[in-house]
Amino acid sequence: xxxxxxxxxxxxxxxxxxxxxxxxxxxxxxxxxxxxxxxxxxxxxxxxxxxxxxxxxxxxxxxxxxxxxxxxxxxxxxxxxxxx
Length: 84
Prior knowledge:
Elements: H1 10-19, H2 24-31, H3 35-43, H4 51-60
Helix pairs in contact: 3-4
GO molecular function, one term: DNA binding
Protein name: DNA-binding protein
Keywords: DNA-binding
């Protein structure tokens, strides 16, 4: 059975970093991102749908990487839209 990746909430990410004794700024520097970009993703100003924001969200654990399923295949909506 395939393990399904679970995205974290911003609070869970903050708690994880706090338990490691790191700030968001330290995390950003360690991973090569600008501090303000990381704070925009964490604060929701960046929707992180694509590009750098998405990359940061995946690295933080806020989003599941595109190559990993976030739901089991059986739970996907398979409804098709009909063409008029």
